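Exercise 7. Predict the structure of Chaperonin-containing T-complex eta subunit Cct7 from Desmophyllum pertusum.
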Amino acid sequence: MCSADVNCLERSRWVERGITYSPVALKPRLALSSCEAELNCSLKKQKDPHDAIMIVRRAIKNDAVVAGGGAIEMELSKFLRDYSRSIAGKEQLLIGAMARALEIIPRQLCDNAGFDATNILNKLRQRHFQGGMWYGVDINNEDIADNFEAFVWEPSVVKINAITAATEAACLILSVDETVKNPKSGGDGPPPGAMGRGRGRPR
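Solution. The predicted structure, encoded as tokens:
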């Protein structure tokens, strides 16, 4: 937690949270950082089992499941890419961007595991083109696998809510950006009667 030449004055215990931290003499920033890191780690240990239990609970209440590990995102990405080629307008670019955005999930899984994301994604694209709908990232073997057969499942309602929320957030950002850049909302010059800098006070 700290270097060997730093002496610890006391060790206190937060009984209500079960967190142990050590204030460090002459090193207040180091002590604060150590306490904060230990607090975050302890809270994460409490949150992870709760998240896992809630996922199982939701899977029991909603019996529709999909394969995890980025499998459903890659399948949706393939479907959107194929569909975008049937559109001749600018909407093709939007649908293609949505297809690329869905590939961020398996790419991030590869980055978190220390894999070569480009190699894994190329394998996933090939497998999904061949009809392997449930193939996703295999963390244990640094490869791809049929995650539905490997019992890597996620409730479909969780995926639906996540994609819906992300799409609504993107639409909101685009609408705000369009409003700011709309030339009809205001001109480039100052409003009538406004005085510029250095022109003195109006008489």
